[in-house]
Amino acid sequence: MAYWLDMDSFNGILKELSADNVVYAPVKMTGKGAFSGTDLVAYREISGVEQIEFKEKSRFSPKEIVFPITQTLLYFTEEEYAVPGTGEKGIIVFCRPCDVNAFKRLDEIFLRNGGRVDSYYRELREKVRFFVIECAESFDSCFCVSMGTNRADGYDVFIRAAGGGFLCDVRGDLATLFEKFGGPAEMSLRFIEENKTKVSIPESVDQSVFGHGIWREYASRCIACGRCTVSCPTCSCFTMQDIFYEDNPNRGERRRVWASCMIDGFTAMAGGHGFREDHGDRMRFKLMHKISDFRKRFGYNMCVGCGRCDDVCPEYISFARAINRVDALMKEAVENV
């Protein structure tokens, strides 16, 4: 069912939903950007639709809502431990189609990878409802069409901001609430059909690519800051930390904290050993995982083409261009056979 709502009506819906849910959406934070005088669009809890940024892409993804940057897994003493709860409220996330597809990738890793379920992720993930924000036009760095993630299913509400109000395609039990505040309307779903940025995914990758000189180029440019993987909606690596309290060293908490194959220390081992110290090798590992290794296991690519990694890289390294370069190398190798 589709409904038309003005801003006051939509806020009425949010007010009712907020009684049993925490609502998150992309919000523009003035002056909080990486550079002086710039703004930042990131996910925050909201109370009104006027807080939502509909026109700009968020620099960071909503994955931190169900996979927190820092998450306490348990509190411990010398004799026992306790697992913290996540609260009774549900979670509503306003996000783009590519981000809904990104959650599908995270589900594969945390819920269906190797026959084990990450109960911490599952507990938060089961609370989530998606309110999908329609992309009126493609952002410059997006390549979702190439990755097949320009369309989204599995949402509760699909929203088009237009004419000072909102057209909403509503599914499931939320239809009753929207009918209470809005009027019936006609709505056909629209998704991005063409991006300015396009990539070509190689059907397969052989060993000839792994030793190619392009990775030395990336080694000279990448500074291993990890901004690409922090902004990525599908990166899921973490490390573990045990925190002991100063007032009682026999008590503390175990936390998991985001980590990344691109950041120094991620592969550190006892004795000071480590894998992939070269930054170009890390770039190769990340790229192959996104467009090859994940696909071998789950049948589709890990990257959703949101372009955030290109947006935030301080060295202007383009992941989209890196994919195209690997594809060109594979096509060249076939021609030379």
From TrEMBL:
The record ties this protein, via InterPro entries, to: 4Fe4S_Fe-S-bd, 4Fe4S_Fe_S_CS, Helical_ferredxn, Sulphite_reductase_A
- Pfam family name, one: Fer4_22
Molecular function GO terms recorded: iron-sulfur cluster binding; metal ion binding
Superkingdom, taxonomy of origin = Bacteria
Q: Which UniProt keywords apply?
A: Iron, Iron-sulfur, Metal-binding
Q: Can you say what this protein is called?
A: Anaerobic sulfite reductase subunit AsrA
The reply on keyword Iron-sulfur is yes
The record lists the organism as Desulfocucumis palustris
**Ranges for the 4Fe-4S ferredoxin-type domain?**
212-243, 294-322
